[in-house]
């Protein structure tokens, strides 16, 4: 009788330890993913000055009627695209919104800078130069404003005060 109680006790202790170990592994994965998220945000913040300078140079060139290549290395979005669900449950609603806005600004900047020069050349074939130049000056000016918004979002998120716009 006592052996069966000891055996039953051993089963309960084993199950309890197994659950605790699984919870510990899951928590470690969340902490690692959160650190990876911060690292990706810091990397993107470091990339901002170079990408902004490319856009500012493009704006200067547009004022003379020309446009140099605007393609640059894309922002890092690997974590956001593949692993956000790991930490999603740990984030506040404001942090989730902040990350969404950061991702959308990054996507907008990367996509616009990727096609800007090619689209400019294509549009020059179909419209008058002054009209196209005015349109692209406005577009690049808006893009530079998005850089400012993205920088503010990234800094605030990394400082622990995420914003939702």
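Sequence proposed for the structure above (165 residues):
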């Amino acid at each position: 009788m006592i052996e069966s109680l000891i055996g039953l006790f051993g089963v309960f202790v084993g199950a309890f330890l197994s659950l605790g170990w699984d919870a510990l592994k899951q928590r470690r994965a969340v902490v690692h993913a959160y650190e990876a998220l911060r690292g990706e945000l810091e990397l993107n913040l470091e990339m901002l000055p170079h990408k902004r300078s490319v856009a500012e140079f493009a704006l200067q060139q547009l004022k003379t009627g020309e446009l140099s290549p605007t393609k640059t290395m894309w922002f890092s979005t690997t974590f956001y695209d593949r692993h956000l669900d790991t930490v999603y449950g740990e984030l506040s609603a404001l942090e989730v919104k902040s990350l969404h806005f950061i991702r959308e600004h990054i996507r907008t900047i990367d996509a616009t800078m990727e096609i800007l020069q090619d689209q400019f050349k294509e549009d020059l074939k179909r419209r008058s130069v002054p009209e196209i130049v005015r349109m692209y000056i406005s577009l690049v000016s808006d893009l530079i404003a998005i850089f400012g918004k993205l920088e503010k979002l990234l800094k605030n998120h990394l400082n622990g005060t995420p914003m939702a716009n």
